[in-house]
Amino acid sequence: MLTQNLGYPRIGSQRQLKKACEQFWAGKLELRDLKEVARKIKEDNWQTQLDAGIDLIPCNDFSFYDHVLDTSLMLGVIPQRYQPVLSQVKTNNEVDLYFAMARGYQKNGLDITAMEMTKWLDTNYHYIVPEFTAKQQFTLFNENVIGEYVNAHKIVGDKAKPVLVGPVSYLLLGKEKEAGFERIDLIKKLVPVYIEIINRLKKQGAEWIQLDEPCLALDLTKKEQEAFEWAYRAIANRVSGVKLLVATYFEAVLDNTALAVNLPVAALHIDLVRAPEQLDDVLALIPDNLVLSLGIVDGRNVWKNDYEASLNLINKAVEKLSSNRVIIAPSCSLLHSPIDLDLETNIDPEIKNWMAFARQKLHEVVDLKHIAQGDLSRLEANKIAIAGRRTSQKVHRQEVQNRVAAITDTDATRDADFSTRQQLQRDRFNLPLFPTTTIGSFPQTDDIRLLRARLKKGELSLKEYEEQIEKATIEVIRWQEEIDLDVLVHGEFERNDMVEYFGEQLDGFLFTKNGWVQSYGSRCVKPPVIYGDVSRPNDMTVRWTKFAAEQTKKQMKGMLTGPVTILQWSFVRNDQPRELTTNQIALAIRDEVLALEKAGVGIIQIDEAAIREGLPLRKAKRAAYLTWAVNAFRLTAGGVQNQTQIHTHMCYSEFNDIIEHIAAMDADVITIETSRSQMELLQAFAHFKYPNEIGPGVYDIHSPRVPSTEEMSALLTKAAELLPAQHLWVNPDCGLKTRKWPETKSALVNMVAAAKQAREVLL
């Protein structure tokens, strides 16, 4: 029986990669120094897995920005607009090209937009979306995958296992950039390059190669299923002497089971955390020669594995296959887990004993192998921890459970329909057409972060800290007034993170010191851990929103995070349905909404950035999720008066298949990210005739480039061609927390100018 890991966190235990990349982008770090930071992270990761006893250790799972972008560079899938970077930039041009594709490029006389970014299936990790044309060509453009294997082999020997995004999933996760073809039809052009790469790795000595095909767990068309069959048959015909392992995760293979088990590969990995019920179906159809990798340690959450439950699955597989055809593994890459629980010194010891981070999960994988082989000495302590969590009074609170049980349909319903509310709100706020606003946060400078750090260390009193935050808040309000924004925000300088800030003030949450995970590029988040029943003991935002509103005669938005987003961007308890936890959070946010309204705040934004992200991967499961997710949002806003305007914001998402449910949320104003897609995402809203107001983002905040007034005006023109101009707001794509002040000021000045131009030209 073997053990394997599918991937390991690449940011470093102290976020070394984030810091190095940002210094490199700022011109403060040489490329050789950036590569040295990466080398140390990779070697430490390989050694950690070797020391834990993992038999197959992933390499090529490291990335400076995103593994799908790495695949595009490897395959030469480089959009034409980036060719000038290669031709005009004389040194480090391939690195500049790589980061230009991820972040945009605005120097050396060039101004190039970044590639589109979206969520990696149903996670909070973002990937750079490959762009394909009808005449797309593929070639081995970048050979880092070969070098990564050679370097890993020096550390872990024959245990090194290269990891690649599989060819079919790579195509399906991309996007056609012109009409008249389907990207899956490119498979016959693509597979020969994969054959070349696999044979090159085999020549270097690779014994196992992992091909990630998460799309095997999605609803596939007949043509897409045939692409899988053709691709892997073609690879098998041209490759020998190396074992290929196809990995699926995040869902059951279901109707693709026969397809998956009959691919001509050595091993198949399935996710038995998300879908343990699929094991029976797989075992019923598995051929005699296929090895099965059991994903039984949760790669996406922080809870300790229940060894007894996992052992039942292992024993069932071994009984059917024998132990030499079973591999024990995490459910997916540990990219989605914090790195090391041992670094946490402030967590309640009782709760900490229920938890495991990436490093601990490696040991769980190895423990399960030994237990399955008869060493029961590792089982008893696990049983005690699992039982302790199940019965702990820190987890269960009857009053919270009673309140959720008492929720009625009326609690989630506004008193009047949107058209009635819209007129009341227009009379109250008297905003111009194309009203301008931002999504909430402004740049969190080093000075602001230092204030928080000094407060935590006791170097500042709370009074001194709040005086400085008040000063920063007043300054940003004055600046917003100066550039003539219509609806202001207070900047959120008192907030560390849009989820963590709320979790710190809600019962049932705990926080880590080093529990960072990568969201995209150098953006790392430290998700709260929901360990018990959730409630709101006190006001959370009223003090700062009310203070900000008192500083201006303009409208000030109250800023909250919605219940589904708090759920999605936290590590969630796995001992009760997610719907129940979400409703507990929704009631807490509802109380805060009503407190803001009582304090005189007339516009309240409840961000549901992650509602699309939580959508089940299989269509058959979506209706149930959307029902409770939409209802949770409505529950937060259901108690306000008609003249109170409720906003929400959603991050990178494809909305076509859920547009009716977005409408059912009944937010007065929704803001969405649309600039990277050049307003393409608005097509769904136009086709549906979305009835409420909408703010399509007119500039990309995930890139440092500053769009011109003309560029944003052109996007507004596109938006006004699709939706009634009277329903359009003007705003950035997302919050501005991660940006720098110079680019932020320039971009927002241009944005306001674009809105004023639209008022003159489009109406």
TrEMBL record:
GO terms for biological process: methionine biosynthetic process; methylation. Residues 448-482 form a coiled coil. Keywords: Amino-acid biosynthesis, Coiled coil, Metal-binding, Methionine biosynthesis, Methyltransferase, Repeat, Transferase, Zinc. Its EC number is 2.1.1.14. It catalyses: 5-methyltetrahydropteroyltri-L-glutamate + L-homocysteine = tetrahydropteroyltri-L-glutamate + L-methionine. This is 5-methyltetrahydropteroyltriglutamate--homocysteine methyltransferase. Zn(2+) 1 binds at H649, C651, E673, C734. Gene3D superfamilies: 3.20.20.210. 5-methyltetrahydropteroyltri-L-glutamate binds at K18, K119, N124, R523, C524, W569, E613. Pathway: Amino-acid biosynthesis; L-methionine biosynthesis via de novo pathway; L-methionine from L-homocysteine (MetE route): step 1/1. Binds 1 zinc ion per subunit. Binds 2 Zn(2+) ions per subunit. It comes from Mucilaginibacter auburnensis. Its cofactor is Zn(2+). L-homocysteine binds at I439, G440, S441, E492, D607. The active site is at H702. It comes from the Bacteria. Belongs to the vitamin-B12 independent methionine synthase family. Pfam families: Meth_synt_1, Meth_synt_2. Catalyzes the transfer of a methyl group from 5-methyltetrahydrofolate to homocysteine resulting in methionine formation. Zn(2+) binds at H649, C651, E673, C734. L-methionine binds at I439, G440, S441, E492, D607.
